[in-house]
Amino acid sequence: MSNTPGDEFPAPTRRELLKPLEYLGGAGIAGIFTGVIVLMVTRDWALAGIFAAAAFIVVLVVLALTVLSFKPDEREIADLAEQGSTEEPPAADPREGLH
């Protein structure tokens, strides 16, 4: 019995497949914009490249952390349940009993 991804999970939609490229594109645009501004101000290619790379990385990390902070809505929870995923209940707050 082969264990191919199509057997267990539905194929991802085109939007789900292209979502990471949207984040890379946005970070790339921010990096290019920053690099061009630094290049116009300093006329130093090395410094412009450093700032462009730093802006790309910072924007990419901020976008990734922002996406991780979102809670799933009802549709996503239903999709996870449909795929057989079990969500663990949130851990109890240890400070709850200390009044």
From TrEMBL:
This is ABC transporter ATP-binding protein. Residues 79-99 are annotated as: Disordered. Keywords: Membrane, Transmembrane, Transmembrane helix. It comes from Agromyces seonyuensis. The chain crosses the membrane at residues 21-41, 47-68. It comes from the Bacteria.
